[in-house]
Amino acid sequence: MKLPDLTELALRNLRESILRNSLTTIGISVGVASLVAMLSLGIGLQQMASRRLVKSGLFDTIIVTSRREMRGMSRQEERNGPNPGESRVLDEPARHEIERLWNVQEAYPDIRFQAELRYEDKPHLAMISGLPASAKSNDAFEGMQGTFFTSDAAAEVLLQKSFAEELLGKTPPLGSPDPDVAELAKPLLGKELVMLYSQRVNSPSPAPPLRPTDAASADAALGATYSVISREQKLKIVGISDLDVESMRGPMRAKVFLPLHLAESLHVMQGVDLREIARAAGDQPVYSSISARVKNPAQIQAVEDAIKKMGFSTFSIVDASRGLRQFFGVLYAFLGIFGSLALIVASIGIVNTLVMAILERRREIGIMKAIGASDGDVKSLFFAEAGAMGLLGGVVGVVLGWAIGQLINFGTNVYLRHQSLPPEHFWAVPWWLVIGAILFSLGVSLISGRYPAGRAARLDPVQALRYE
Amino acid sequence: MTSSPAISSGTAAIRSENLCRHYQMGETIIRAVDGVSLQVRAGEFVALLGSSGSGKSSILNLIAGLDRPTSGTVVVQDRDLASLSRQELAKYRLRVVGMVFQSFNLIAGMTLAENVELPLRFAEVERSKRETLVREAIDRVGLIARSHHRPSELSGGEQQRAALARALINRPQLLLADEPTGNLDSHTGVEIMDLLREFNRQLEMTVVMVTHERALAERYAQRMIFLADGKLVDEQSNPPAAQLTTRGGHS
């Protein structure tokens, strides 16, 4: 029998005992719905977790350093890579080149320096770091008091809470509970800090220094020179971060944060300037490291390889996310098994329905055989009926599962709002799950249909026709 | 036992030799067909007569390829049915044999036209050709106005005519009828018998009919074969004169 005829006859037979077949199909739908609901919960949770990780900036950032730093993360690289003396300098053109790489969202220099900060005329030493504007959406600043920088070049400053404690002279004894950030923020927000730093000034002929402290001018091969001048910068405290210094990653590990553009424009003398004295005297600044943020953390390795090819050393935390994927693999398996249980029950329903249909349609099967239907025709017909129920049940089930997910998501978010927590989207039904669930349902139904279809095909027509 | 001179002449459409069909019923063996040898010529109209349990329907099922013999052979149009596979037997039933039953055996959920169309679906005839074939067949049995009725909406005679239309849709050479008038009143029965004869004469189909009504067999069949206890007990040719006395309104 041809497929259109088969489909037509199968659907006709399904309509003939509509109640029983509908109930069976609903059974399959519920099974598929539970499978879809379970798996989409797992997928949603994973997406939520990886969203958090991306936000934390741990997994989407590659730290690029020059090989000249001789800080390569692997010894292999050091042996195989170019001679450090011949390798590239991490300067502005290099940063542009990295930023233009595929999948790179931004590449910004890591500016970190030590400086003296005066608050109410008392000096404090602190590590200061430049923060890009994109850090605003960073998880690290979630519990922050105050606001983020108003612009990328504003004369504003964010303080880490332990530094705030220091400024207020309230450093708690070791082991005591952390003070409340809000309390620390109250007296500090809006106040002014004065930062004293050393500026590097490129000059063929050194500019007249205001207060020359250190005559670190040196003649390079090109005859260029630079001067180091002490400067002051007034900064307004706009926010206090709740962040623990220990949890911060390399370049961001600091107690005081400035807007990145401001930090760049200050041309603060950095450690790398001394090592690269010959180049630092040129027009372009030299960076000790650059942070490259990728758009898709899953493809971080490709970007890393591309940067390595450019002649730099790189570092990223890829392995940590691998462990996470493993955990979710196990979670999927569990959720999938529980979700499938309902579908297995439903498949028994299919077997039952079709076996009943054989008993009921014995005579009809006999007639069909008497007028020339082959075993294959009868078998295909029952298969088609099982398949149609599976397909329909699968489609309805996916819709149902999606609806259940939306409902639970909605309910949870109402609860989260009551707890004054931000809403989360932890439910995801990707298209592959939709198609996969429907195909799975079809497959399970066809397997369930095998036994009844085989039985129907083997039916003896003489006995079937005698049966009243 | 007189052997008919007709058997020796003409080509044999059906030939059985020492045909047996035994059923195991617990301890006892039921010999439904027990060593029947017979021949039917192509284009012949033969009636199998006997009381209930005489084995006439069992022989018909064996000829139809619905059942397989326990021993002996049945050869239809040079095909030894015992040697055919299940697949080949299904094809044989589809192409070579048309069957009608006492209880009509139409599929209740389908309209008359759909019932008639069903063998064409199994034969994988193209959709475009089917409609005309179905129309022709239904027209031949005079039911064109009832095409879209379900069997439950038809009278017994109409149902049997629909079954006849279904039996001839694939143009088989052999028409097997198992008590075709058994569920009909005598007037409707005669109408059905006229149709059978029409197919026999106009379409040159070989007809084998099982019946226990001797009068009908005498009026329509060219030859009668009598069975008892699964054995062939007598054969009798009807004189052409007997057939002439019947009405031939449908031809």
Describe what you observe in this structure:
The complex is a heterodimer of chains A (468) and B (251). Chain A is of the alpha+beta class and 468 residues long. Chain A has three domains: 3-54 and 323-466, no CATH class; 60-109 and 287-316, Alpha-Beta Plaits (2-Layer Sandwich); 111-284, no CATH class. Chain A contains 15 helices and eleven strands. A six-stranded mixed β-barrel of chain A has the order 3-4-9-6-8-7. A four-stranded antiparallel sheet of chain A has the order 2-10-1-11, covered by helices on one side. Chain A is elongated, with a radius of gyration of 34 Å. The two termini of chain A are 27 Å apart. Residues 206-222 of chain A have low confidence and may be disordered. Chain B is an alpha/beta fold. Chain B folds into two domains: 1-96 and 172-251, 3-Layer(aba) Sandwich (Rossmann fold); 105-170, no CATH class. Chain B has helices at residues 5-8, 56-64, 86-95, 112-122, 127-140, 156-168, 186-202, 214-220, 240-244; strands at 12-25, 28-41, 45-49, 71-76, 79-80, 97-100, 174-178, 206-211, 223-228, 231-237. In chain B, the strands form two sheets. A six-stranded mixed sheet of chain B has the order 6-7-8-3-9-10, sandwiched between helices. In chain B, helix 4 crosses helix 5 (127-140). The longest helix of chain B is centred in the last third of the chain and has 17 residues, at 186-202. The model of chain B is unreliable at 1-9 and 245-251 (pLDDT under 50). Classes of the chains: A alpha+beta (468), B alpha/beta (251).
Numbering strands along the chain, what is their spatial order in the largest sheet of chain B? 6-7-8-3-9-10
For the biggest sheet of chain A, the summary is: 6 strands, mixed, barrel
Q: How many beta strands in the DSSP annotation of chain B?
A: 10
Helices and strands of chain A, in N-to-C order? HHEHHEEEEEHHEEEHHHEHEHHHHH
Range of strand content of chain A: 15-25%
| Unreliable stretches of chain B | 1-9, 245-251
